[in-house]
Design brief:
single chain, 404 residues, alpha/beta, TIM Barrel, 14-stranded mixed β-sheet, 14 helices, 14 strands, 33% helix
Length: 404
Amino acid sequence: MAIPAGSKGGYFGPLRETGADLVRFASDLPYYQSAHRLHTVRTLGLYVNTDCNLACEHCYYQIANGYRAAEGLPADRLIQRLAPALDTEVLLFAFVGKEVFLPGPRGAAKTLKVLEFLADARDHGRQLRLGAVTNGTHLDRSLPSLEGIRLDFLDISFDGPDAASHDALRGPGAFERSTRNLAKAVTAGVASKVFVASTLYRGNLVTLANILDFHDRFGVNHFSVMPIVAVQDDAQSISLRDLLEFVSRRLPEKASALPAGPPLQVVVDIDSYMVARQLDAFAALLEGTTVQLDDLNNVVMRRSLGRLELVLRISLPDPCNSYGCITHDGLYFDKGGCLFMKKGYERHALGSVASTPVDALIARHEARAKELSDRRGRELFSDAASDLVNGAEHTEFYSVPQLA
């Protein structure tokens, strides 16, 4: 299952060149899995809290689903339990929610204290990257602290280029507050890359390409898109054909109409099993390009379309995509929150960092990922994450929206 929108910050160099086009990479996946150790955990997503000031209609992180609010680990305790991860191969610590900069001890205060700890480790020679995802409405209060931390990326969520489309999902006034703070974040230079991170759904399919106008309005050069694709009986979903049209026609047409200026990057996240369903079409879109791997084991394909760099970031299924996460209450999962955030999630964790060293949990994750990768071979590319982990854990607990 793809990581929540924007939570990997694009890609990070240096890129490793596989020399393979998309079809060959999918066919020879076992070789690349082994040669590049794609089972290695390189990213830890940190779910700081269960609190948010918005109630977005498309949010998978809902208390109503059974993912209950709790005090969670306080900042000092979380820092203590995270410290052993600095001796592993984890490179990115991504703060992904629920709302990491919500004022208070369970939000911004906790986020900033943990970020400062990690930034200190980085400044003393530990190679690592720091990023955060936010709805942006309260970001201004944290900007002075973030200037000292120097994030590698900051993703601010926008679901449309204007108030009507954005506020339709997030509530009245959200667009005005978030754009104001987006401009402040870009001006302050709080991150190497400030991304506008968008969910692509039926309601903004026609208009979302206009988000590229944020460059002229706010100085943004980086954009990420997470599509809600082909969900049965879901009024918000789009089809794979819609997605292909968006990336092959709507984005390039918008980019070609922009005035001359610096290059713009759009990263589109999609699960490998979706690519497998339309492999020939995606291969045609990316003809002449090859699969590359960054230092987080992101599988990326890049295509230059004039001023636009289109990046397809293809996520292999959990738990084989180099991503682990720690919940607000200290549970470690080898899968994204889209899978586990519902009633009874506690029973399906690999363990708790409160009782088991996090490096041991990461090792457990990597062992299972390697075993599943070896077992599934090239079929892994077309596996849906829920099918893979349900089979591995002999359960029917996990579910992702099925393609229509």
